[in-house]
Design a protein that fits this description.
This protein is an alpha/beta fold and 219 residues long. It has 5 helices and 10 strands.
């Protein structure tokens, strides 16, 4: 775990010089007053470099494990659970050196806060049939496991040739459904984390790293 570094886009301003230089300095001061979402982050758990290195390792491992399947001409489907896993799946797919299909589901048990609502709903189903195909679910985070347990049962009923789960993150929580993951990107503490696809109230998904929000942001 690393401490969130101080973030600033301010540059030293000299109060002497040409009118154009002073105008540029005034613009820089105005820009620095704008909202900066990096300032809402208390700590960075996983840097952009750490994430990319780990995703590359996952892609290499999946390539080796599914190479024989691809050699037989069987279909591999990489499924993203929207919206949180979209970035993870896109990066993971680029590191997998086997032919594959990509599909998407939206399934939710979360509201706009930090707690699960306990209600599972399919908001968007897969576009294609998965019967007889090898399905790999790229999930953003394994928390309570409520949503993922439902999803696995739902997809298993469609008779895929195989069904695997690869979450980027597995949160260390006291109560978690027993889910057999093929691979896990990172183990993470029980904090409300954002970045790299993960959100709080639909914000922070576009952060390149994964970090924890300051308490005052969501309390």
């Amino acid at each position: 775990m690393t401490t969130q570094p101080a973030y600033s886009d301010k540059t030293p301003v000299q109060m002497t010089g040409s009118r154009s230089e002073l105008a540029q300095a005034d613009g820089a001061n105005t820009a620095s007053a704008h909202y900066d979402m990096h300032n809402d982050i208390k700590e960075v758990f996983f840097t952009e470099q750490q994430i990319q290195k780990r995703v590359a390792e996952l892609g290499d491992a999946l390539t080796q494990e599914f190479q024989s399947v691809a050699d037989k001409g069987e279909t591999i489907v990489l499924v993203s659970v929207l919206r949180g896993a979209a970035i993870f799946m896109a990066d993971l797919a680029r590191y997998m050196n086997v032919p594959l299909e990509m599909d998407y589901m939206a399934i939710s048990s979360y509201g706009s806060g930090t707690k699960s609502s306990g209600v599972v709903r399919i908001l968007k189903d897969l576009s294609s049939e998965i019967k007889g195909k090898h399905v790999i679910i790229a999930e953003d985070i394994l928390d309570s496991g409520l949503t993922l347990t439902y999803l696995l049962k739902n997809l298993a009923s469609r008779e895929p040739a195989s069904l695997s789960v690869v979450p980027l993150l597995r949160k260390k929580v006291k109560e978690q459904a027993p889910i057999d993951c093929l691979h896990v990107g990172f183990e993470c503490p029980d904090e409300f984390i954002v970045g790299y696809g993960l959100d709080y109230a639909e914000k922070y998904r576009n952060l390149p790293y994964i970090g924890v929000l300051k308490p005052e942001v969501y309390e």
